[in-house]
Amino acid sequence: MKFDTPATTNPIDQLKVVGKPLNRIDGPMKTTGRAPYAYERHDVAPDAAYGWVVGAGIAKGRIASMDLRAARAAPGVLAIVTARNAGRLGKGQMNTAKLLGGPEIDHYHQAVAVVVARTFEQARAAAQLVRITYAGTSGRFDLAAEKDAARFPKEDAFSGPPQTTVGDFERAFAAAPVQLDASYTTPDQSHAMMEPHASTAAWNGNKLTIWTSNQMIDWGVGDVARTLGIPKANVRLVSPFIGGGFGGKLFVRADALMAALGARAAKRPVKVALQRPLMMNNTTHRPATIQRIRIGAGRDGLITAIAHEGWSGDLPGGQPELAVNQTRLLYASPNRLTANRLAVLDLPEGNAMRAPGEAPGMMALEIAMDEMAERLGIDPIRFRILNDTQNDPEKPGRPFSQRRLIECLQTGAEKFGWSRRNAQPAQVRDGRWLVGMGVAAAFRNNIVMKSGARVRLDASGGVTVETDMTDIGTGSYTIIAQTAAETMGLPIEKVSVRLGDSAYPVSAGSGGQWGGNSSTAGVYAACMKLREAAARAVGFASGEVVFADGMIRAGDRAVPLASAAGADGLVAEDFIEFGDLDKKYQQSTFGAHFVEVGVDAATGEIRVRRMLSVCAAGRILNPKSARSQVIGAMTMGVGAALMEELALDRRRGFFVNHDLAGYEVPVHADIPHQEVIFLDETDPVSSPMKAKGVGELGICGTAAAVANAIHNATGVRVRDYPITLDKLLRGLPAPV
Length: 736
Description:
By secondary structure, the chain is of the alpha+beta class. Helices cover 23% and strands 26% of the residues. The chain is built from 16 helices and 32 strands. The strands form 8 sheets. Strands 4-6-2-13-10-11-12 form a 7-stranded mixed sheet. A 5-stranded mixed sheet has the order 1-27-21-22-23, with helices on one face.
């Protein structure tokens, strides 16, 4: 199905099943322990051996020697694979560094060996006996030190141009009566998902199957094939359940490769899970940023000049953190400048983490907007409304398909009680607590991706959906079932969903907030083709047919849907392919975050007291799972604001707090009740579903709302995340 004109009325608009807050159909499997995760596939590999990955002990240099004798002689050891005996290996298109290092080392904890043994304990014990000596070389580990050497990166389909200009920023900024010129920093961050990167691999002749934890199945198949130098047709990836990813499992990582190499060497299935202390340095992370924002405005509050420049670092051949891209679209101004610059660093690979670009970019931009409003003496919400636009600021002839930022801000202000906020900082107390409110806009682009599915109608009238789409805890199973049920006129109980297998049609996958909208649109396309086939099978012309209540109706005639299946069933396959509507319209999602905090006047301890997010993100396919996505993202935003930071050893080039004991994330006690409001919206330009993504919108701006609330509570403005109490203590007002 080609989607190149805005959607009109279609079966999804019935909203008998779609749009309902249904429980997740995979919930009972997960809560009873029956959901098969990658490391637990005893059903397919009951005799699997265990692999333990050895990571490099230096960040830059080479292996001088590797003594494996004691490890090979250890009890239970079946094989040890290193770069010397792995055979010729390529590099995946999505990987910046090689997944198996040696003799050259690209970054700390790069995999250099996998020890395979009969039991997990034997593999772990033998791995400790591997003796490696290194010849280390100096590396580049400090973004601030390398900032001046940063260059514009290459443009690609996701990044856009590295620099954009409109008008004459420098002249307009110099002439502006009110100015802000400030720098902000965000630290390196880890995905820190519950399930580690894990895979179970088995060879059958020259055919490889990997049961893994991966968000993008087709990307993964391609990169496994490229790395091993085998045909793509010989690789099967299976990933029906994923225990969290947040972008960290978009690409094949060392667990999958080392399991495959270990299984080939041991001649039996091998399972590998990256041990938690290895994950933070072996896999990807959100890279640190340095951001400079300049805003000039008239006394009336209208922005006349805005510039946002960002610096980040990555390994050679890597990509930048696109922290300035939302500034190209969010606020009006006739004079604009944005630039992303990339420094070469010898740190572990920087790559996508929930809302790459916008999440750290909004952390800075929305503080800057708050600071500018304060300088102008204008309410922060009023300032944002004054500078709203219904057209792409860089391409004024291209309107937004939907843009209800003002309504999000106004709805949230009324619900949250914004009128009670004291604009003068450090004026509100509740016993020993300084209390403040903060606001930030939320913005995330709406990306759409080609996505396919196969649907089967059986003799019982049930429909089975097959697609390689994944569910990383987001609710894909349920919204796909709702889509099929709505389109085919069935109750959801008559729909079965099979996901995460490369044997199924290629889908959009889970990433970039595109998964839910794109994958359901692909299922809708396949179901519409199945409707046509079913109508023909019972002698109806497809144009006059109604599918409802398990029946096919045309005029006065009605027959059971099951009768169209025949003895052998009926199968249809199709995909959604998007045209150029994104060139005619700017498609984005919007929201507003409101936060109230309390700060202990004596110790600087910060407590989040209330949170509200108002979202405009197209049709909400399942309000229950969508709310869960938003509150999870809001929680991550609190973590980014107050605690999350990969502490970097700038001498040796590695993240020191590489486990969940040292890398702090929010726990239940840190998070108050969170409210979410979805505006009633459809976007016919987005897809036949008239939906958009929502899974990443909730993190975009949340940290800045927390930061702005802290400033309102204390009068202390912190521009370097995370906002820890040591950054507040000197500036706190004197105790009363």
